[in-house]
Amino acid sequence: xxxxxRIAPLEEVPDESTLLFRVEPADPDGDGxxxxxxxxxxxxxxxxxxxxxxxxxCQHLTHIKLDKGSGAAMRNGEIVCxxxxxxxxxxxxxxxxxxxxxxxxxxxxxxxADGDVYLTDDDYAFVGxxxxxxxxxxxxxxxxxxxxx
Length: 149
Ligand code: FES
Description:
This is Rieske (2Fe-2S) iron-sulfur domain-containing protein. By secondary structure, this protein is mainly β.
């Protein structure tokens, strides 16, 4: 595993919340905009070393962040969007309840090795821990939603 793709020690991924970090597209011809992502433990896994990773944006209104900087809310193994109460399974990203029921969070590939979590998704490069500081540099996700009302 490449040291620059190391996101965090596995032990820092919380049990009932999320760990926030930043990625950017790996494609040099891409938009280059940073995006936020979250690590979450799979509560149903027998292994403590099973983590999932999702882009940090609700599928109802895709500019709304699930983890607003201090960890996403979780109930019974599901990530809760606090805006309108959508629930997403931590392990599959599938929305089981709420205005975007049936939608799925955007997955980012990660792997656990030697007690650390690494970004292994060819489409993204690791930028750093924590939220995007400069929102003007963030991807403009305000106009997209996969759900119409
Ligand atoms: S923005 Fe997440 S449920 Fe509406």
